[in-house]
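ok so I'm stuck.
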Amino acid sequence: MKIVFALAISFLSAHMAWSAPIAFDFKDPKGVNNAVFKLDALLESINGTASGISGTVLFDPSSPGDLTGKIIVAASSLNVANAMMKEHLLSDKWLDATKYPEITFSLEKAGNVKISGNEITVDVTGGMTIKGIKKSITTPVKITYLKDKLKARLPQLEGDLLVIRVNFKLKRSDFNINPGQSEDKVSNEIDISLSLAGQAPRTK
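replied:
not stuck anymore, here's the structure
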């Protein structure tokens, strides 16, 4: 009886260790991770990027629907080609990057999980916070889990990669970003696209 009990404990411990969520760090040492945004108004189309991305996502390969975590974008890293336009973008009338230095998305729950090989599509619901205002959004997300592939991207490290790709829309009026102003040149609707690689290094 003691042997059976010991074997059962051993099996459960091994299973729990195997199925534990993996923490992926999205502060990319290569500096490649970025967000792309577009505002396509009647008179002008504005395209920009944000490079100051960090955050942690917990992902369990055996239960991808349990996805949780937070992605953070440094507001000051938002960039557009026109210098004056960038100054306006970061000013207190628009993003107010000094008072609100972070734009965040907290992953709270996931559903409608579909798996095909190492690619997963899932509907993610979470809280988007801009200028201190938090709104709940739901958007489809494509996740690629690449076991033991970190070395292919960062040769000095062993571990796994998690790639997240997502496209969604926001309204600047929902976040008090100069609502109702200059909409013929600065669209109220913002198209956002992210393709981010997170790393989970492990010791040899």
